[in-house]
Every structure is written in C-alpha cells, then in structure tokens.
Amino acid sequence: QKLTPVLIGTNHWTQLALGNTHTIAIKNDGSLWSWGNNATYQLGNGTTAINYFPMPVSCPGGVITNINEATATLHNVSIYPNPNNGTFTIHTPTNSTVVIYNMLGEIVYNNATNTITTPLALSLTTGVYVAKTISATGTSTTKFIVE
C-alpha cells in the first residue's frame, strides 16, 4: 500500500473534474476521458460499468476545450463564476429544467432550457443557493454563492 501519490503513465491532462467516486479529464489533445464509479451513467459512455483506468469518451460536439463543457455533457451541472453577484452562467445537459432554490427551500428560478450554456442575471440576495437540473440523463445539483 502506497501513501504517497505515484505517477501512472505519461498522459498529459489539462483539466480535471472530480466527482464523489469518478473523474472526468481533458487531455492536451482536447479528448475527453473518464474513470471511476458509473452507477448513474456519470462516465458518459452509455453504460453503468466501472472503469478502473482512464477511458476515452465519445463527444458528439467534437473537441472539448473546457472542463465545464465536459461536466455538462455528462449530465452534471456547473456554475461560474462561483461565488457571483447574481449574474452567472450555468452549464447543463441539453433539454433540461433548471430549478434554483434558496436556503429556505423556496424556488427562486424555474425554467426549461435546450442549450448547454445558459447565462442568467437574477436579482438574488446574498447567500447560498442550490441549482438543480432535471434531464433525460438524470438529476444533478450544485451549490453556489451570491455575494
């Protein structure tokens, strides 16, 4: 058992996104790779099989240049900038419903979108919010902060 990180292979990764039990990464050639647990199709390969090693992921849109595009492609939701002032961009799967809740559980935004990138400018008070997306590939949530 090793307690220090060990380099495995010589792949050059430009970006990583870490889930609870899986990883999505972009290599320097723009290709998308994933590995780890896959019980809810989070690896984007159309199966629920676990990948113990990095495996390429087919991307219908071609080369991915930003990890936010990769995570949105694989049914996750991401928001940037985070924290923000109420003006932000949300990345979701296509044909999703985006619901934003305040910490009291009140819905402050609820809208369907058919694009991956949706810029929003909302009048939100300072605090923590939860964005939830619902799509054919699943439901995903993330927290964001309004300053």
Structural commentary:
- This protein is mainly beta.
- 5% of the residues lie in helices and 46% in strands.
- It contains one helix and eleven strands.
- The chain has one helix at 67-73, and strands spanning 13-18, 22-27, 32-36, 51-57, 78-80, 87-91, 96-101, 107-113, 117-121, 127-135, 138-146.
- A four-stranded antiparallel sheet has the order 1-2-3-4, covered by helices on one side.
- A hairpin with a 5-residue loop joins β7 and β8 (107-113).
- The longest helix is centred in the middle third of the chain and has 7 residues, at 67-73.
- The protein starts with 12 loop residues before the first strand and ends with a strand.
Question: What is the fold's blueprint, element by element?
Answer:
Blueprint: E1 13-18, E2 22-27, E3 32-36, E4 51-57, H1 67-73, E5 78-80, E6 87-91, E7 96-101, E8 107-113, E9 117-121, E10 127-135, E11 138-146
Antiparallel strand pairs: 1-2, 2-3, 3-4, 5-6, 6-9, 7-8, 7-10, 10-11
